[in-house]
Amino acid sequence: MKVLEAAMELERPTTDQQKIDHVTRRITEHGNYLRQRYPILQHQNALGAGVMAVSLIGMVVSGGLYLQGSIPAWGCILINALLTSFIHEIEHDLIHRLYFRKQPLAHNAMMFLCWLARPGMPSPWLRRSLHFHHHKESGTETDVEAWITTSGSPWGVLRLLKLVDGFIFGFLNAVFAPGWREKVRLLVKIVRLNTPFGLLYWGCWYVFLGYHLYAWLGAVSGHEVHSSATTLAVMDVVNSVVVILVAPNLIRQFCLFFISSNMHYYGDVAPRNALQQTQVMNAWWLWPFQLFCFNFGSTHSIHHFVVRDPFYLRQMTAPYAHQVMAEAGVRFNDFGTYKRANRYSLAHTHTRSRG
């Protein structure tokens, strides 16, 4: 017995890299076990395309019911916010080429449909290089994707605004950038990243906000607002687009960025150390946020160890993966990250923001 215990002690991972390799191997093995136990999981392309089709059809049906007056605006917004969270997961898997890897026409068609359903985001083809770099250098100063989601910024009104409105986030970064050359460069980059769908998406949102703010101020001040027939017709279209597409994505994006920016550590992470890159955030009170980003806080850390598994398999793997990750030292529900501006070190309480 003592010999066996000694042998097990020798096999136990001690360095961070050994722990990372151990976690990766165990989760991969469990994923293989689930694929064998449930043969339907081996039809990965069909499952991804199926979820994509159901989500898009659901959005169209929900929007149609709203336009007919069968469901209220808030019902359409919540339904489509939930459905776009599925589409986001599909897009993320597509960025890693988990569906139709050898069939570029089908693969790129799905990428394009994901972009149409989430037009406020840059194209997935542009995001692919950023995301691959995020995996390679997660949490370091060059991790632009993490920074875009506000990781590393101290909590306050500015960070909250950035979470709500990604376009304003980019615009503010450009305005406060040092030097006019840098300002112009960032402004041009914002326009390029949001062309063409993002400009239409954010433009629609700002027209919606501007018109209704104008009408509200008129009502408050006692001056009735009289709009032309053309203006009313345009606003009828704008209102419908906001309810069916814009508002659902704003809710989804806020929930996703709120969870993602706090479960990722940033600024003092050891390079390429998956044990320090993320934590698991699965506290019960986070469920209102998790609902609209497909339980991202609970499962995304798994993805940093095993990239090859699609989003639905991560959900199935989570109970086992969490146990293995906890044994290796991955943190769970470290809410001190709010005070530390997402620094990994528990000693950091006051940090400097990148923007």
Task: Walk me through this protein's architecture.
- The protein has 355 residues and is mainly alpha-helical.
- The chain has one domain (2-160, 240-338).
- Helices cover 68% and strands 0% of the residues.
- The protein is globular, with a radius of gyration of 23 Å.
- The termini are far apart.
What is the alpha-carbon Rg in Å? Answer: 23 Å
How can the largest sheet be summarized?
none
Report the uncertain regions: 1-10, 350-355
Separation, N- and C-terminal Cα atoms: 58 Å
Query: Count the strands?
Result: 0
Element order: H for helix, E for strand: HHHHHHHHHHHHHHHH
Question: How many helices in DSSP terms?
Answer: 16
Strand share of the residues? under 5%
* Overall domain count: 1
Globally, the shape reads globular
What is the helix content? 55-70%
Q: Supply the helix-strand structural class.
A: mainly alpha
Chain-averaged pLDDT: 91
Throw out a few tags for this protein.
16 helices, 355 residues, disordered C terminus, mainly alpha
List the helices and strands and how they pair.
Blueprint: H1 2-11, H2 16-37, H3 44-68, H4 73-95, H5 104-117, H6 124-136, H7 144-148, H8 157-164, H9 166-175, H10 180-193, H11 197-221, H12 229-263, H13 274-277, H14 287-290, H15 296-305, H16 311-328
Short description:
With 355 residues, the protein is mostly helical.
